[in-house]
TrEMBL record:
It comes from the Bacteria. The keyword RNA-binding does not apply. The keyword DNA-binding applies. InterPro entries: DNA-bd_dom_put_sf, MerR-type_HTH_dom, MerR_fam. It holds the Pfam family MerR_1. Residues 6-75 form the HTH merR-type domain. GO terms for molecular function: DNA binding; DNA-binding transcription factor activity. CDD domains: HTH_MerR-like. SUPFAM superfamilies: Putative DNA-binding domain. Keywords: DNA-binding. This is DNA-binding transcriptional regulator, MerR family.
Length: 330
């Protein structure tokens, strides 16, 4: 019967990539003991012991503690359970490293004092619950006492980002900027003043009802269709142009009826669209423009964090001339 080969500690070190002192340490700690000793007391290791030392090195490189390794080799835990535990640790460390990278890139890209560095590290290290709490505090403050439909307040609260589990550097930098923005007292005061001024009308509750919000969205979609048609070279008096004009007129009529409480005169509404924008549409334009000036950066950052394309507030709707021509052709 062939005797299994035994390797002296120097050969084992070369095979495993471990230092001689590390192999001695693992032997003394009872992690991987030598198979036998020479008459002179030198350690000898068989193939199985060498394989166990190679596993020890791999696990230690992956961050496993000595106690974890000892438990695994003693069959007190499985390799899968150990790997699962350390995968969670590694992923957490990776998120922290990405967060630090985002802070460092932000520092490199702009002049930053020590106080702001500490603030950025705090913002990027927030838990999901902390992020939600910060945004709730922001929207609660700017909408407090606002005389609008509750659904509108809920809609505003929904204007928040969703930071993915593995955000990239751009998303983390966007979160730092957004969190810093909503914590700024001046920004909160300005947003609050905008909403309380924009919705000071006695009809604000009606205008912000779910039905009106749905009507505004339908009108916005029709405006985008008109914009795309004009860019595509569609003649306003063509069948397609007239169909889009019909949707613009219909959606605007529903909005006007919602505001006034009565059905509008379609002839008058059509004439107003071919001359100057009707009052409700002009009011919406002014409100949208001011909203864009004030909150377009907030929305852009929100979409960047969530991995969605940012909207262009100044790029909605066809030209007044195209709309007037299309409506005139009805």
């Amino acid at each position: 019967m062939t005797t299994p080969p035994l390797y002296p500690i120097g050969d084992v070190a070369r095979r495993t990539g471990l230092s001689v002192s590390a192999i001695r340490f693992y032997a003394e700690e009872g992690v991987v003991k030598p198979t036998s000793h020479t008459d002179g007391g030198y350690r000898l290791y068989d193939v199985e012991a060498v394989a166990r030392l190679e596993l020890v090195r791999t696990l230690r490189d992956l961050g496993a503690s000595l106690e974890d390794v000892r438990r695994l080799l003693a069959d007190e835990t499985s390799l899968q359970d150990l790997a699962t535990t350390h995968l969670v640790i590694v992923e957490r460390q990776l998120r922290h490293l990405k967060a630090r990278r985002a802070v460092l890139r932000t520092i490199v890209g702009q002049e930053t004092d020590a106080r702001r560095i500490s603030l950025m590290q705090e913002l990027v290290s927030m838990s999901d619950e902390d992020r939600e709490r910060l945004l709730d505090e922001f929207w609660n403050e700017v909408t407090d006492g606002l005389d609008v439909h509750p659904a509108f307040v809920e809609h505003l609260h929904g204007m928040r980002p969703v930071l993915p589990e593995e955000p990239d550097s751009e998303q983390l930098q966007a979160w730092i900027e957004l969190a810093d923005m909503v914590r700024d007292a001046d920004f909160r005061a300005e947003v609050r003043e905008f909403f309380h001024t924009a919705f000071a009308s006695p009809k604000s509750t009606v205008v912000t009802s779910p039905e009106m919000l749905a009507g505004m969205e339908a009108h916005r979609v029709a405006q985008i269709e008109a914009r795309d048609a004009e860019r595509a070279g569609v003649d306003p008096d063509s069948p397609e142009g007239k169909e889009i004009a019909g949707r613009l007129l219909a959606t605007l009529a529903r909005l006007t009826a919602g505001v006034t409480g009565r059905e509008p005169d379609l002839g008058e509404l059509r004439r107003s669209m071919t001359e100057t924008a009707p009052e409700v549409d002009e009011h919406a334009r002014r409100a949208a423009t001011r909203f864009g000036v004030l909150l377009d950066r907030y929305v852009t950052l929100t979409e960047t964090i969530s991995g969605r394309p940012a909207p262009d507030f100044g790029d909605v709707g066809a030209s007044d001339e195209w709309i007037a021509a299309a409506v005139s052709a009805l």
